[in-house]
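Final report, closing paragraph on structural work. Over the funding period we assembled a curated collection of sequence-structure pairs, and we close with a single example.
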Amino acid sequence: MAYYYDNLKLDKGMYREAGRSFSQVLERMDPSERYKGTSLEGLDAFQRQLKRFDIKVKGAGSDVVEKFFQTSDAAVLFPEYIARTVRQGMEEGDILPHITAAVTRIEGLDYRSIASEAGGQEKELKLVEEGTAIPETTIKVQANLVQLKKRGRMLVASYEAVRYQKLDLFSVTLRQIGAHIARTHLEDAVNVLINGDGNENPAEKTILVAGKTLDYNALVDFWAKFDPYVMNTLLVSGDVMLQLLKLPEFQNPLTGLNFQGTGKLTTPLGANLLRTSVLTEKTAIGLDRRFALEMVQSGDVVVEYDKLIDRQLERAAITTISGFAKVFSEASRVLAV
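Its predicted structure, as stored:
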């Protein structure tokens, strides 16, 4: 049985369409709905093209890089393979989804977030008497633009050096590039949580009394400051993690069973405990992940497709553009141990 994807003409122009990624263009030309009830159901348009050219990108039987360049059409798939693999590396072990309330995708570099502070009369749900005005909550546009930063890595390798490398092994390097990019995004996010996004909204800092060690009472006091928010996430540096794990309250058998069974640590206060080397020593950030942080992305992972399609891998850039904004400034606080 012949399928449409077998005869699809691929070219560089598919990467140039404004507002659409290569995969989106490919999916529009070859919708996955056509394949419901067939052996190809569950594959997206890009995966069907890999099948068309019999390119295996993972597993013990993976092909070599050169397989992408057997035809001019197959070569067009190479930049998208790189972008997808880098994106996979960004997502593996990434803790940003656990501290981000919303992800906003934009076309361009200018973006203003919104703000509405909780607490006080603005958020009180007062009884409304007949004929009286309903209390208002005002949502305001931030004064300053969200600072978007371009992050990336340069892929430096000659085609001759990688042409016979297995794609499964080549993917490991690409995923590592993605992991490095994800780490820089996390650094940007942590900086915004602590210092604000340029709109005079740094996090309130709680500093333990000099000479006092972190104990359960200090942690409870920190947790109590979040009302009307909930501290459901605690981001900590490595040394603070060690202090927490040594507290008697963290040695509760149920906490241990949860860690042994799922690999996830939670505090006795119910917050997800996340360790990162991005934070400086003796620092913890508590946040209500539902309301604290917005991630802004301009486009997706971008690769220099012209160079890659033409086998000019000597210096091919892989980049992303993103930034972070605080949604509700009181939904995150810093604890200095």
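The mean pLDDT is 87. The domain at 198-295+327-336 is CATH 3.30.2320.10 (hypothetical protein PF0899 fold). We thank the funder for supporting this effort.
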